[in-house]
Amino acid sequence: MKTPWRRHRWWLTPTLLILPAAILFSVVILWSAVESLWISLHDWDGFSPMTWIGFGNYVELFNDPQFYVSLRNNVIWLIMFMAAPPLGLAIALLVNQKIRGMRLMKSLFFIPLVLASVAVGVVFTWVYTPQLGLLALIFGFFGATAPAVLSDERFVTFAIVIAALWPQIAFCMVLYLAGLNNLSEELIGAGRVDGARGWNMLRHIVLPQLTQVTFIAIAVTVVGALRSFDMVSVMTQGGPFGSSEVLAYQMFEQSIFSYRFGYGAAIASVLFVIMAVFIVWYLTRIIRIEERGA
Questions:
Q1: Mind telling me which residue stretches traverse the membrane in this protein (predicted)?
Q2: In whole angstroms, what separates CA 215 from the centre of its chain?
Q3: By the 8 A CB rule, do 50 and 42 touch?
Q4: Are residues 76 and 166 in the same domain?
Q5: Full domain range(s) for residue 12
Q6: Which residues contact 201 (CB under 8 A, 6 or more apart)?
Q7: Is residue 185 part of a domain?
Q8: Residue-level pLDDT at 234
Q9: How far apart are CA 57 and CA 260, in angstroms?
Q10: CA-CA distance, 208 to 57, in Å (whole number)?
Q11: How many domains does the chain have?
Q12: What is the pLDDT of residue 170?
């Protein structure tokens, strides 16, 4: 006679394995999002009792010029970060070649990924130093004076994004290297028999097999661009005059330095909605593409 466990093992085993992660996700992510949304409807300094103000924080937020500066900077981050997946793929294709010395090259390209974001920010702060940095040396070689990009409202966001792209490209490279190592040798061999070489091989044989990797690379890159905070904090603290702030840093600044946790929660809620809309749209599109392919 079978015990209850044996009779229901087909669904009890996966449920018990998934349950701890589901509970952790619900508490850390879902409950935190709901709590943040609730706080955004109040005026709260983090210490005294919360005061209900409804959508007052959101009304103030959408009338705040700094919000649109931060939102514009997030769009710049998003557009520039889209260079990470194709550049990561290009580097992965390069270092995946069976050529002497490629292991060393692969290690050098991998270094940014193991560095902390704070370390990357510090390194690029030195690179951009007008008098002594690497940028100054390059400009000096051509007899020119390097601009102080971190002090210029026109260039500061672009300079920070370039610094953040360094480890992001390395991350995408690692993803694509894993994908390239799992390519079907049969399909590649069949392509060679049919005369596929170079671009045709890449387009018709390699890239279709990297669809799932590309999905992960783009999704992680977009989320990374939208939640950008640490590089801004290390390199400029949102300056000069708030010109390099992004939504995540504005949320942090309003909550921690201005003691406006309700207003900061409103910014966090808007950022969460933007991410959620993108993720839902992207997942829907990927599912439709896969259904057509099936």
A1: 12-34, 75-95, 107-126, 132-150, 155-178, 205-226, 261-283
A2: 13
A3: yes
A4: yes
A5: 1-39
A6: 188, 191, 192
A7: yes
A8: 93
A9: 10
A10: 46
A11: 2
A12: 92
